[in-house]
């Protein structure tokens, strides 16, 4: 057991990650209602010897934190309306031999009705699988058991993915903030 797994287990958590580790995948994570989602997901994934990247505001990439965030897989997001973040990430997928990217389609820890669809665009255009991840605070378990192949019909895909997550409303750290 590595340090990640030891820490995770000491906190009373366990993994239920049965999907294969792929060279390239988008890991959709919901519900996202707390900063603890990131920490528990990172601990769980790393406990299995897996590495996933994540998007984070460029603001946080300052000395000395930037070295930590890069080492953990952080990808800084610049606030530039002239540059499409989605297009940049698609190019990253095409140019790298390995990239697993964890995203939260809610885009906020507050309850939101409208989920972002960039993760669907990225997965479809980069031709990668979407793995459906859940941070279950009720059961103290990180779950990634299902994969979804995007069709390119984003409305249809989002409806199916939200339906999958509807069974996990009570898994959120703050269930009242999750709108599946």
Architecture overview:
- The protein is α/β, with parallel strands linked by helices and 180 residues long.
- It is built from six helices and seven strands.
- It has helices spanning 3-10, 36-47, 65-72, 85-95, 118-126, 154-165; strands spanning 14-17, 24-29, 53-57, 74-77, 99-103, 129-136, 141-148.
- It is globular.
- The chain starts with a helix and ends in a 15-residue tail after the last helix.
Offer a few descriptive terms.
180 residues; alpha/beta; seven-stranded mixed beta sheet; 22% strand; globular
Chain-wise SSE layout:
Layout: H1 3-10, E1 14-17, E2 24-29, H2 36-47, E3 53-57, H3 65-72, E4 74-77, H4 85-95, E5 99-103, H5 118-126, E6 129-136, E7 141-148, H6 154-165
Parallel strand pairs: 1-7, 2-5, 2-6, 3-4, 3-5
Antiparallel strand pairs: 6-7
Helix pairs in contact: 1-2, 4-5
Summarize the structure.
This protein is of the alpha/beta class and 180 residues long. It is 33% helix and 22% strand. It has helices spanning 3-10, 36-47, 65-72, 85-95, 118-126, 154-165; strands at residues 14-17, 24-29, 53-57, 74-77, 99-103, 129-136, 141-148.
SSE-based structural type = alpha/beta
Strand order of the largest sheet: 1-7-6-2-5-3-4
- Integer-rounded radius of gyration: 16 Å
Report, as a whole number of angstroms, the end-to-end distance: 35 Å
Rough outline: globular
Main pleated-sheet profile = 7 strands, mixed
Percent of residues in beta strands? 15-25%
Helix content: 25-40%
Q: Total strand count, please?
A: 7
Number of continuous helical runs = 6
Q: Which regions have little confidence, pLDDT < 50, spanning 5+ residues?
A: none
Please, what is the average pLDDT? 93
Secondary-structure element pattern, one letter each = HEEHEHEHEHEEH
């Amino acid at each position: 057991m590595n340090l990640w797994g030891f820490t995770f287990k000491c906190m009373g958590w366990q993994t239920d990650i049965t999907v294969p580790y792929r060279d390239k995948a988008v890991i959709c994570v919901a519900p996202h209602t707390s900063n603890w989602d990131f920490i528990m997901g990172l601990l769980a994934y790393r406990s299995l010897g897996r590495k996933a990247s994540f998007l984070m505001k460029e603001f946080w990439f300052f000395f000395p934190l930037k070295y930590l965030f890069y080492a953990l897989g952080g990808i800084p997001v610049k606030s530039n309306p002239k540059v499409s973040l989605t297009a940049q990430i698609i190019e990253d997928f095409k140019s790298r031999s390995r990239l697993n990217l964890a995203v939260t389609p809610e885009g906020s820890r507050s309850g939101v009705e409208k989920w972002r669809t960039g993760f669907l665009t990225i997965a479809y255009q980069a031709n990668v699988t979407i793995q459906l991840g859940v941070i279950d605070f009720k059961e103290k378990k990180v779950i990634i058991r299902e994969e979804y192949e995007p069709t390119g019909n984003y409305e249809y895909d989002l409806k199916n993915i939200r339906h999958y997550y509807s069974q996990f409303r009570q898994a959120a750290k703050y269930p009242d903030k999750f709108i599946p």
